[in-house]
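Protein Record: Sequence and Backbone Structure Tokens
======================================================

Structure line: whole-number tokens from a learned vocabulary of local backbone shapes, matched to residues.

Purpose: to set a sequence beside its fold so the mapping can be learned.

___
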Amino acid sequence: MKNPVIEVKGLKTSFFTDGGEIPAVDSIDFHIHEGEILGIVGESGCGKSVTSLSIMGLIPKPPGKITGGEILFNGENLVHASEKRMRSIRGNEIAMIFQEPMTSLNPLFTIGSQLIEAIRIHNKVSKREARTKAVDILKLVGLPRAEELIDDYPHQLSGGMRQRVMIAMAMVCDPKVLIADEPTTALDVTIQSQILKLMKQLNEKMNTAIMLITHDLGVVAEVCQRVVVMYAGKIVEEGDVQAIFKNPQHPYTVGLIRSVPDMRDKKERLYSIPGNVPKPGSIKTGCRFAERCEHAVDRCFVENPELYATNETGHRVRCFLQVGEEGAHRDRTVTASK
């Protein structure tokens, strides 16, 4: 396996309000290898987007602040990077696709002018050269009649076309890392499939590492090699996609997988994990999933489990069910009650 292009170590990001400090991301560790697609999965409010904004240096200050840990990009700690340095990295070496393209594209400027600006900020080229490259990247992401479309405004395009433009804008400077925050949420199923196929093709063709943030496990199964499952600001399970889908070890991951509708199994009522995601910072002691977990024991409410390594390489689980009294791993599969 190649060296990690991104390493997140002990990252803590908090928001400071009148009610005190609210930890949105609490001591998380993960890495992304060159050319790899890593999925970050979890319910709304678990800290996925805050993690991506922390990497991009886009946490609003105030009220937000990275309070601990490291974000290493090719060995450079971005937590301590200056704003000037981050501006040179954003869009050039690390790019991001946001969830809703209409809020990310400027409605007052044409698609071409926005692409050309992105190119010329990071490359010393003429407007003519930048326009040629903009047309080429629009063709690369599968947009028809790129030479004409480059002079259109965002409102003149469909949702799927706007999302392709956002991918083109993110890829135009050949970034080493692409962060995609729910890139298919607002699109219909057919367009979703096209966008995911496109991202995978770009990953294979340009060897770009992709961090795909989603709540859709079907998306993860289709395009990712590894997956990180987050809950209430912490990582609860991490490992190879096939291993986690075949044998999930954390009760929360089991619940997420059971919540996915299966057309082969006709049920009157779909499964849902009982309870709600706790408010950030509301749980001070114990496992943050304990209140919703049907396997919870007394220990779960007073101790916070660590990420324990399982018998499978690279598979880690934050759950006491996976360790014996002496801390040795139990090869135990967690199943939810029917």
The first helix runs from residue 48 to 56. The longest strand covers residues 4-17.
